[in-house]
UniProtKB/TrEMBL annotation:
Protein's UniProt name: Acyl-coenzyme A oxidase
Keyword Cell division in record: no
Domain Acyl-coenzyme A oxidase N-terminal, first and last residues per copy: 18-133
GO biological process: fatty acid beta-oxidation using acyl-CoA oxidase; lipid homeostasis; long-chain fatty acid metabolic process
Localization: Peroxisome
GO MF, any single term: fatty acid binding
Primary residence: other
Organism in which the protein naturally occurs: Centaurea solstitialis
Amino acid sequence: MEGGVDYLIDERKKAQFDVEAMKVAWAGSRQAFELSDRIAKLVANDPIFEKFSRPMLGRKELFKNSLRKVAHAWKLIIDLRLSEEEAKLLRHYIDEPAYTDLQWEMFIPAIEGQGTEEQKRKWLPLARKMQVIGSYAQTELGHGSNVQGLETTATFDPQTDEFVIHSPTLTSSKWWPGGTAKVSTHAIVYARLILDGQFHGVHGFIVQLRNLENHTPLPGITVGDIGMKFGNGAYNTMDNGVIRFNHVHIPRNQMLMRVSQVTREGKFVQSDVPRQLLYGTMVYVRQKIVADASKALSRAVCIATRYSAVRRQFGSRNGGPEIQVIDYKTQQSRLFPLLASAYAFRFVGEWLKWLYTDVKQRLEANDFSTLPEAHACTAGLKSLTTSATADGIEECRKLCGGHGYLVSSGIPELFATYVPACTFEGDNVVMMLQVARFLVKTVSELGYKQPVGTTAYMRRVTALMQSNCAVRTAEEWLNPGVVVEAFEARSTRMAVACGQRLAKFENPEEGFAELSADLVEASLAHCQVIVVSKFVEKLQQEIPGKGVKRLLEVLFYVYALFLLHKHQGDFLATGYLTPKQASLANDQLRILYSKVRPNAIALVDSFNHTDHLLSSILGRYDGNVYPKLYEAAFNDPFNDSDIADGIHQYVQPMLRQELHSAKL
Ligand SMILES: CCCCCCCCCCCCCCCCCCCCCCCC(=O)SCCNC(=O)CCNC(=O)[C@H](O)C(C)(C)COP(=O)(O)OP(=O)(O)OC[C@H]1O[C@@H](n2cnc3c(N)ncnc32)[C@H](O)[C@@H]1OP(=O)(O)O
Ligand SMILES: Cc1cc2nc3c(=O)[nH]c(=O)nc-3n(C[C@H](O)[C@H](O)[C@H](O)COP(=O)(O)OP(=O)(O)OC[C@H]3O[C@@H](n4cnc5c(N)ncnc54)[C@H](O)[C@@H]3O)c2cc1C
């Protein structure tokens, strides 16, 4: 058997559910499925969007090629009159980080959220037509996580009615802003506002960086690229920049003034809008990142699942075929929880999008009541989903054995592009510590304030602290109420225990720092409650299609019981479960894997990923892996000639024992 074509045809026949209906369930609606399918095909059939050769290109060529793709995409958007939703799908399928990400997902949202009506009227039409290109310059060489610690200054000059933007130290150089090194004409620069020698907090300022005619940096601005990043191709299509400001003057009306204003006289006016709204763009992007995690994880899982069905090792009898590696229980116990996680993250991402839309509408109406919860949810779920996705992609590489390490497997570039999501938009530990602040506050108020939203389960604190799990058989774990209650009890007990230990410290901040590792674990437990509960809520909805709901139920139990198994130390230590019950959950998990097994290929087909998006020989839809790997090896430019450069100069003299006289 040369290729794996026949294996995947057989695999697809085993499916016990309607794959087309599952595609709709994954996409969210029939309309969403059709839209995304149309755009995926548009990209896959356009040679300009080819990306297989990307990891072989040098930086300059890679970058220029990326600029070409963006220009072509923008032309398509205009010619085909694509909506903003369609344009964002186009970006997803082109699958290449570019300056437009910052323009559309940070520059524009920052003006929308923090600008006054007048500022929005001026800047948004220009940005939406790409007549100005903006980036988001917050992080500095010496300061990233601690936004209040930024050093760049914006000093008001009442003489000229301008702000003077300045980088007083080397460490205050802006460092990382995407799109800035070579492309953006403007940036939202976060800086310390100084009025009459007084510091008034960090604010955002729209600063022009480049001349719109000839693209040269404006006087007082030193700008460049920060250098190559992890992996070939990957995030190197993005020009992450360094900027140094030397007393750059900007008009007063270029400070984003929804949250606070500076008058013509240089007076600081604090409105009723909470200062945290300055961080609103980050809340928006964190929510986007959660929605995107399932896309990245599902790609890796699709590759590893298809390849696991093609790959055979051991067990051949009488010259018959060896065993498909997907049939090994160990392979299933590593792969199927990731498959289930992709679905879990998809549904929690959908919910978070809804939550964000709700919060945004409230903020527009000056209702800030749900902001703390939205911040905690976006920060925590960003942390949970990106950490699990980054680890999951690496696990998928290992699940593909040696071939997973080849660039042509598609996994190394996916990993290299994805991992910074654990750091950007808030380091994942720093984000979990934000959840911890929220949890500690919730727990400390339990006696007199009813928790709401995602912490509402803590209203039953007494029951959750005192009652224990009633499961007696593996079968009894197949009950959503039982599973959710176990997660809620473990989370409540961990949060309350942290609260009790914190209360023993005289200085709460000192206590928080001392217990921070435990607080991060309690925060993770709470975020897992959210993911598990949102999966259950999804299952309570009508889900059409033969067998679709049943398979999603199986995936729910795989996701939840796998987490329970992985974190069984917490469940046992908090006393909610007995070792016997934890062991029964694990028995059930093995049974569930055998229910996933016949459906595994159909479940990854339901992601509807094109071969273009996967860009992976191992994950090809037709499973024709070996002939294509062989072909790709000989198509590699390194194999253009049998004698590589340098062989005659450095190897032959060694073979001939003539190194002493060779010119090295
Ligand atoms: C090619 C095709 C072309 C076609 C084009 C067309 C379309 C293109 C479409 C593009 C689509 C692209 C899709 C891509 C997806 C998106 C990718 C975007 C790329 C991202 C790149 C990365 C960018 C960045 O990284 S930007 C920098 C991010 N930086 C951070 O995240 C810094 C993290 N630090 C912080 O947030 C803060 O410093 C913090 C929170 C850690 C501490 O802040 P502070 O010290 O001020 O607060 P505390 O004292 O801890 O808390 C005070 C109080 O405030 C509360 N709080 C904190 N933060 C928030 C918040 N955000 N919201 C609300 N409340 C907040 C906190 O809880 C405290 O509350 P208390 O009640 O007082 O406890
Ligand atoms: C690919 C990429 C693109 C980016 N794009 C942009 C952009 O467009 N615009 C922009 O402004 N920025 C951008 N950034 C910067 C990014 O937002 C920051 O790197 C990120 O916020 C983390 O901050 P840091 O680098 O200062 O990490 P640090 O805070 O220095 O983290 C280092 C370590 O310290 C730990 N740590 C830090 N603080 C605490 C704490 N309080 N308690 C416990 N542990 C702590 C962290 O967990 C981590 O392990 C980008 C970064 C990357 C990698």
